[in-house]
Design brief:
The protein is mostly helical. The protein folds into three domains: 53 residues, no CATH class; 59 residues; 170 residues, Orthogonal Bundle (MetI-like fold). Helix content is 70%, strand content 1%. Strands 1-2 form a two-stranded parallel sheet. It starts with a helix and ends with a helix. The model has no long low-confidence stretch (mean pLDDT 84).
Length: 368
């Protein structure tokens, strides 16, 4: 091998697992001390967690009696016994196939849109954003002319309700946030003031306040016979709240676009709308993908707050299930909350990892 080729290779100590560990875990005295402290913490906590969650756990039981015994660990039997309630809430058991079909269709369409090499992505987006909401509503709520009995939203709950609230917030917050961000940068004073006022007011109050206002005030703006459904009100509140935060994320991306890009688009004779659509917004959104995903993750976790206005989300379903006298006990309640934490972690971690993949692809594309 030539001397020039040898000069290009990294030192042996920096290659492989050992090299990675030296570079990232033991790169200096501070890094080494932090690594050793964290390893010690894991060694101290891991045996107790392993014993509680797996070794001493109760995996099968008819009721909570075995989980209340001395020395019993996590009560996974409680999760198995209450699983249908966690997923569907009080949705009628004989009609739960409609929830299963709705979630299966949603998962398939999401996978179609997120799959990089999928064909006909335009059709996939149209199906997800237009056809699926109509079909999903007909399945979940009912359509008598199709032979589907009505199921009031008061009987919706559990995992599928949490996913519904998060999906509505994510789907509507991004386009609304883009419009608000553009409105905040508008040269029209009325549009700019309205956008700034909405963003600052909504961002200045907690989500729980927005939910209560949506629950109480939305019916005041329409005739009584058109009063929004009890579930529609928090959905509107979540979407509006998330859109205000998304607007600031998008505005940061718009401000990061070099002025030369805009001047070049104007020199080509592009109209303001086409310039925003083809030049400015694609670059701005690509720059703030981490912040967009971070907003989505926060929104997904904030869906638990809809329980404050009467919605039976997944976490609230666990709270209700643990009140069953047959399954009462401290380890039983703890197991329910551990399971809820794992549920939210899996979804949030998946969103985070996917966004990292998108960032790497965009970085490689821009480097060419």
């Amino acid at each position: 091998m030539s001397d020039a080729r040898l000069a290009e290779l990294p030192p042996q100590a920096r290659r492989g697992a050992l090299g990675w560990a030296r570079a990232h875990l033991f790169g200096g005295w501070a890094s080494s001390l932090t690594t050793l402290c964290l390893v010690g913490l894991v060694v101290w906590l891991a045996p107790g967690l392993l014993r509680y969650l797996i070794i001493d756990a109760v995996w099968s039981a008819a009721d909570g009696g075995a989980c209340r015994a001395a020395g019993a660990g996590a009560c996974w039997a409680f999760i198995g016994a209450k699983w249908p309630f966690f997923v569907y809430g009080p949705y009628p058991p004989e009609l739960r196939w409609r929830v299963d079909l709705t979630m299966a269709l949603g998962a398939a369409l999401v996978a179609w849109n997120l799959w990089r090499g999928a064909p006909r992505k335009g059709l996939a987006a149209l199906a997800l954003l237009v056809a699926y909401p109509i079909a999903g509503f007909a399945l979940l709520y009912g359509a008598p002319f199709l032979g589907l009995a009505i199921v009031p939203t008061a009987q919706w709950g559990g995992v599928f309700l949490s996913l519904l609230v998060a999906a509505v917030g994510i789907v509507f917050s991004l386009p609304l946030g883009v419009l608000l961000a553009l409105g905040r940068r508008s040269k029209l004073p009325i549009v700019r003031m309205a956008s700034v006022g909405f963003i600052e007011i909504v961002r200045g109050v907690p989500l729980i306040t927005v939910l209560f206002m949506a629950n109480v005030m939305l019916p005041l703006f329409v005739p009584e016979q058109w009063s929004p459904d009890r579930l529609l009100r928090p959905l509107v509140g979540v979407a509006l709240f998330a859109s205000a935060y998304m607007a600031e994320v998008v505005r940061a991306g718009l401000q990061a676009i070099p002025k030369g890009q805009i001047e070049g688009a104007q020199a080509l004779g592009l109209s303001p709308w086409r310039m925003q659509r083809h030049v400015v917004l694609p670059q701005a959104l690509a720059l703030v993908i981490p912040n967009i995903v971070n907003t989505f993750i926060g929104l997904f976790k904030d869906t638990t707050l809809v329980a404050a206005v009467g919605a039976l989300d997944f976490l609230r379903a666990i709270d209700v299930a643990r009140l069953d006298p047959a399954w009462a006990g401290p380890t039983i309640a703890t197991t329910g909350y551990v399971f809820a934490g794992l549920f939210y972690f899996v979804f949030c971690f998946a969103m985070s990892r996917y966004s990292l993949g998108v960032e790497r692809r965009l970085a490689r594309a821009s480097a060419r």
